[in-house]
């Protein structure tokens, strides 16, 4: 079992180095809620958590998403993101297949699997049709050969690695986009005001940097999750009577 660091580094040393401005603008575009991958249609089970009274205000929303980042899909996706990016940088197709297969399998419910696979597929397709980095076609073919839809984290890792981006910066951007999308779902569902949403994102920012830093240094044995209540909410959402979100 891994040991998480207790505080985020002051300037996140070892997490993200200096970012090329050209990389920065692409990361801002690719992780934007306006990037057409349908992220706004997924709540990662938060819709049921609100229905069940588990998430009812800003504090409980932050706690719920923090648990996802530290112990649920946030952690597993971060470890597999780091593994996939490393595989591309090292020209290791077998290692990428390993990461892709585990990313596809490690989902607590059918809706969470859909959430990841649909966004990953859309991300690869959209980047490929707009500003594909050199080498993306080859690595996309490796993913296709697994016979599995690409998980969102793996798709972003492959694209950013092909683009030569700093893996720490790319992973932080991915986790920020993931957390911000969940906050946006909570703002609409609880409901909360937009300022409360930004307060929630500010509270989660050091958490995602900590997760990214630990994931970049993680061993494959550290892969795993321990967020059963999140999985319960996601599974319960599948039969929820009234639903706005797909997960």
From TrEMBL:
Keywords: Chaperone, Cytoplasm, Nickel insertion. This is Urease accessory protein UreF. The keyword Chaperone applies. UreD, UreF and UreG form a complex that acts as a GTP-hydrolysis-dependent molecular chaperone, activating the urease apoprotein by helping to assemble the nickel containing metallocenter of UreC. The UreE protein probably delivers the nickel. It comes from Skermanella cutis. Required for maturation of urease via the functional incorporation of the urease nickel metallocenter. Pfam families: UreF. It is found in: Cytoplasm. Belongs to the UreF family. The keyword Metal-binding does not apply.
């Amino acid at each position: 079992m891994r040991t998480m660091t207790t505080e985020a580094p002051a300037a996140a040393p070892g997490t993200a180095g200096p970012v090329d401005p050209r990389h920065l603008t692409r990361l801002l575009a690719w992780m934007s809620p306006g990037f057409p991958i349908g992220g706004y249609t997924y709540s990662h089970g938060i819709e049921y958590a609100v229905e069940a009274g588990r998430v009812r205000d800003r504090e409980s929303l932050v706690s719920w998403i923090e648990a996802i980042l530290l112990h649920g899909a946030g952690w597993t996706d971060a470890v597999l993101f780091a593994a996939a990016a490393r595989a591309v940088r090292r020209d290791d197709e077998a290692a990428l297949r390993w990461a892709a297969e585990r990313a596809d399998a490690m989902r607590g419910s059918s809706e969470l699997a859909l959430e990841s696979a649909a966004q990953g597929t859309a991300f690869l397709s959209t980047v490929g049709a707009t500003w594909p980095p050199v080498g993306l076609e080859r690595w996309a073919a490796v993913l296709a050969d697994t016979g599995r839809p690409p998980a969102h984290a793996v798709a972003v890792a492959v694209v950013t690695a092909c683009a030569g981006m700093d893996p720490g910066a790319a992973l932080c951007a991915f986790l920020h986009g993931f957390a911000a999308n969940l906050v946006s779902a909570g703002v609409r569902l609880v409901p909360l005001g937009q300022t409360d949403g930004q307060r929630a994102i500010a509270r989660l920012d050091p958490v995602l940097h900590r997760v990214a830093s630990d994931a970049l240094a993680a061993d494959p044995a550290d892969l795993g999750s321990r967020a059963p209540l999140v999985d319960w909410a996601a599974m319960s959402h599948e039969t929820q009577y009234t639903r706005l979100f797909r997960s």
